[in-house]
Automatic annotation (TrEMBL):
<dbReference type="Pfam" id="PF03459">
    <property type="entry name" value="TOBE"/>
</dbReference>
<dbReference type="InterPro" id="IPR017871">
    <property type="entry name" value="ABC_transporter-like_CS"/>
</dbReference>
<protein>
    <submittedName>
        <fullName>Molybdenum ABC transporter ATP-binding protein</fullName>
    </submittedName>
</protein>
<dbReference type="InterPro" id="IPR027417">
    <property type="entry name" value="P-loop_NTPase"/>
</dbReference>
<dbReference type="GO" id="GO:0016887">
    <property type="term" value="F:ATP hydrolysis activity"/>
</dbReference>
<dbReference type="InterPro" id="IPR005116">
    <property type="entry name" value="Transp-assoc_OB_typ1"/>
</dbReference>
<dbReference type="GO" id="GO:0140359">
    <property type="term" value="F:ABC-type transporter activity"/>
</dbReference>
<dbReference type="GO" id="GO:0005524">
    <property type="term" value="F:ATP binding"/>
</dbReference>
<keyword id="KW-0547">Nucleotide-binding</keyword>
<keyword id="KW-0472">Membrane</keyword>
<dbReference type="GO" id="GO:0016020">
    <property type="term" value="C:membrane"/>
</dbReference>
<feature type="domain" description="ABC transporter">
    <location>
        <begin position="1"/>
        <end position="233"/>
    </location>
</feature>
<keyword id="KW-0997">Cell inner membrane</keyword>
<keyword id="KW-1278">Translocase</keyword>
<dbReference type="GO" id="GO:0015098">
    <property type="term" value="F:molybdate ion transmembrane transporter activity"/>
</dbReference>
<keyword id="KW-0500">Molybdenum</keyword>
<dbReference type="InterPro" id="IPR003593">
    <property type="entry name" value="AAA+_ATPase"/>
</dbReference>
């Protein structure tokens, strides 16, 4: 349980927010550059002192402005992974890894060296210096070093931002494994939608030093504040789905979800894999009758459950076993005669769902991420 309230004046910039995150494995702090994300985690880590506030992790108070509690960083039991590894260049990988471990009293160590090496796949790197590691390897070692201090909370500040797309895809599954394997919750700073989709349970949306929204990934990504901050056209729905089959002939993968079967562009994830799919509200069309003679493959019976008028558009909430949002014009709303409870059909074009809108959410228990040979 994270219980955080922070106030800080940085020149003209004022940070003022409070949140709690109970039971989440990964809490994502999402916002534009300069919204104050790094400042928040620096204050949780004890690297920056808030003007006022309180920071508690599982009931253990790390900072309380009123009570004069301000634990120094090493006593906070918080691990920190920075954007670019920040490994000690004069230590080998082994030296970097044991650094944090040796500073944690033996009675408080609950994460084992061998387990970290194994989960992060860094056994072959132990005798190398950081200068002989690729970007992805450096980050895995940095994660290992943070974990080996047996932290009660892991802070990650855009840990993938310095990596190219391929390395990023490779590291994401490792990060997804961490809370389950080590039982350490993560506060994860990002401004990448795909990372949040993949990793987070709880989402905090920051804007100009304030918390603009907070809740489950499904809820927050479905609201207009997130669309605005992430530069997306419309709000979106996040549906949870499972891979059922690949239709290579037609280049599609079939996913089962509460609304039926949705076809998306061909994926490599195996059958049975659980995914999150992001569907932009503007990509959902509505029809009062089941359409025929259309190219659209994804047609779902639905019922209107909410109508929200905003800036000349109507957000139509649909129940099709799960929630799906459609965004239509006032004209279309009037022409269709929409009202609450009306049965209709929701249509989603397969091609409108891009691969970056689909993320594995829970890694399969019996699988371990695989690594390609990395070029330095
Ligand atoms: N020590 C400081 N002194 C003055 N201003 C600061 C200080 N640290 C941060 N700021 C200001 O606070 C604001 C928030 O910065 P912060 O780094 O927390 O944002 P961010 O959301 O993490 O951005 P980015 O994604 O670019 O890292 C910025 O306007 C920044 O210039």
């Amino acid at each position: 349980m994270l219980d955080i309230a922070l106030r800080k004046q940085h020149g003209n910039f004022q940070l003022d927010l409070a949140f709690q995150s109970d039971g989440a494995k990964v809490t994502a702090l999402f916002g534009r550059s300069g919204s104050g994300k790094t400042s928040v985690i620096n204050m949780v880590a004890g690297l920056v002192r808030p003007d006022q506030g309180r920071v508690a992790v599982d009931g253990r108070v790390l900072f309380d402005g009123e009570k004069g509690i301000d634990l120094p960083p090493p006593r906070r039991r918080v691990g920190y992974v920075f954007q670019e590894g920040r490994l000690f260049p004069h230590y080998t990988v082994r030296g970097n890894l044991t650094y944090g471990m040796e500073r944690t009293p033996a009675s408080e160590r609950f994460i084992q060296f061998d387990q970290v090496i194994d989960v992060l796949g860094i056994g072959a790197l132990l005798d190398r210096r950081p200068s002989r590691l690729s970007g992805g390897e450096k980050q895995r070692v940095a994660i290992g070093r943070a974990l080996l201090s047996s932290p009660r909370l892991l802070l990650m500040d855009e840990p993938l931002a310095a990596l190219d797309g391929a390395r990023k895809d490779e590291l994401l599954p490792f990060i997804a494994l961490l809370p389950g394997q080590f039982g350490v919750p993560i506060l994860y700073v990002s401004h990448a939608v795909d990372e949040v989709l993949r990793l987070a349970d709880h989402l905090l949306l920051m804007n100009d030093g304030k918390l603009e929204d907070s809740g489950t990934v499904e809820d927050v990504m479905g609201r207009s504040g997130f669309a605005e901050v992430s530069g997306r056209r419309d709000p979106a729905s996040i549906v949870t789905a499972m891979v059922t089959q690949h239709d290579r002939l037609h280049g599609t993968t079939h996913l089962s979800f509460p609304g039926g079967v949705i076809r998306v562009p061909l994926l490599s994830a195996p059958a049975g894999r659980k995914l999150r799919v992001r569907i932009d509200a503007g990509d959902v069309m509505l029809s009062l009758t089941r359409p025929t003679g259309l190219s659209v493959q994804n047609i779902f019976p639905a019922r209107v459950v909410s109508l929200r008028h905003e800036s000349g558009l109507v957000d139509v909430g649909l129940d099709l076993g799960c929630m799906l949002h459609a965004q239509i014009s006032e004209q279309a709303y009037a022409d269709l005669g929409l009202n609450i409870g009306l049965p209709l059909y929701a249509l989603v074009k397969t091609a409108a769902i891009s691969r970056s809108d689909i993320a594995e959410h829970e890694p399969a228990k019996d699988e371990h991420p695989t690594l390609a040979e990395e070029e330095i």
